[in-house]
Design goal:
By secondary structure, the protein is α/β, with parallel strands linked by helices. The chain is built from 10 helices and 15 strands. A hairpin with a 2-residue loop joins β2 and β3. Keywords: GTP-binding, Nucleotide-binding.
Length: 370
């Protein structure tokens, strides 16, 4: 634990130095390096070396079930448990809820034939960046989610949102961002070759080299395909510790504020207003979550029979016929001859397709074996 204290001290020092450094052209380089150091230390905090007695937190790894996973994140008492019991079948937890703040409670939302796993993460993200308490495991579970549903108290304005965003940012979760368009390949020799296809306004070649140096990378190929910031470049180096996840902000308790304020909140990007007590807008919340998850439903049919619309295969967007075969049975692709597809992805119905054909939502497929 001594080791961890040392790191937190270092992080505090660097943050203090960054706060007291003026931001201008002359200090850009210095600040960039400090950011890299900070990112490196944070990564060490989150995945400490295995040597330091790797005690796993008990009762936290939640098995992935269902077709997609949504993590509920928010401060205590914003109504996470209420929404869990409203949307899912996990009613029983409500009574014993005071004591279950430490574990992770999964619930399942049945929606259009698919099962979406909803995880209620304890509201103890604060301090996770310092490696405190259960924070680390909460982060690990949040990383595996396909969508983060951030529950906010509408009566508290924006403060909660900024705090949670900052915490998630520090542990390497990037909300509603695309991975930066930077190509980085680490090599075994030949120094650093640096190119960009557009004018760079945030970083210089010198800064990029210094940051790579800080990470003990002396031979690499770097290509900037967009005008990225220092933080984005560091994200590319640390790409094993970064997750880019869609996030939906749900403002709860809208029955306690004025209608003008509700209107204002509802117009914010990626935001939705709800009330658990009055059961307002909950169906729309589930619909929006589904839209954000970008899932594709595919129905199968046997030869000479109508399609089976009761059970859908739920796949990620961009799924191909090969993915369908794998999700039916793993030996299925070996016996595959061709498939017939009806629906939006077919040029004409039915279209004969091979394994590489991409499917769209609510397609019907019939697989013909050898």
């Amino acid at each position: 634990d001594h080791f961890r204290m040392g790191i937190t001290e270092k992080i505090k020092d660097i943050e203090a130095e960054m706060a007291r450094t003026q931001k201008n052209k002359a200090t850009e380089h210095h600040l960039g390096l400090l950011k890299a150091k900070l990112a490196k230390l944070r990564a060490q905090l989150l995945n400490p070396e295995k040597a330091a007695g790797a005690g796993k937190g008990e009762g936290f790894e939640v098995s992935k079930s269902g077709d997609a996973r949504i993590a509920l994140i928010g401060f205590p008492s914003v109504g996470k448990s209420t929404i869990l019991s409203c949307l899912t079948d996990t009613e029983s937890e409500q009574a014993s809820y005071e004591f279950t703040t430490l574990t992770c409670i999964p619930g399942v939302i049945p929606y259009q034939g698919s099962k979406i796993q909803l995880l209620d993460l304890p509201g103890i993200i604060e301090g996770a960046a310092q490696g405190k308490g259960r924070g680390r495991q909460v982060v690990a579970v949040a990383r595996t989610a396909d969508l983060i549903l951030m529950m906010l108290d509408a009566t508290k304005g924006d403060t909660q949102k900024h705090l949670l965003e900052k915490e998630l940012h520090e542990v390497g979760i990037r909300l509603n961002q695309e991975p930066p368009q930077i190509y980085l390949k680490i090599k075994s020799g030949g120094g650093v070759s640096f190119n960009s296809v557009c004018p760079l306004t945030y970083v210089t070649e010198k800064l990029v080299r210094s940051i790579l140096h800080e990470y003990r990378v002396f031979h690499a190929e770097v290509l900037f395909r967009e005008d990225a910031t220092v933080d984005q470049f560091i994200d590319v180096i640390e790409k094993n510790n970064r997750s880019y996840i869609r996030c939906l902000y749900a403002y709860n308790k809208v029955d306690a504020i004025t209608i003008e304020e509700v209107d204002e909140l509802a117009r914010l990007p990626n935001s939705i207003v709800i009330s658990c007590n009055m059961k307002l807008n909950l169906e729309y919340l589930v619909e929006t979550c589904w839209k954000y998850l970008n899932l594709v439903r595919v129905y199968t049919k046997r030869r000479g029979e109508p399609p089976n619309f009761d059970e859908a295969l739920i796949l990620r967007t961009g799924a191909t016929v090969l993915d369908v075969c794998r999700s039916i049975h793993r030996d299925f692709e070996l016996q595959f001859k061709q498939a017939l597809v009806w629906g939006r992805s077919a040029k004409h119905c039915p279209q004969r397709v091979g394994l590489t054909h991409e499917l769209m939502d609510q397609d019907v497929i019939e697989v013909i074996k050898k």
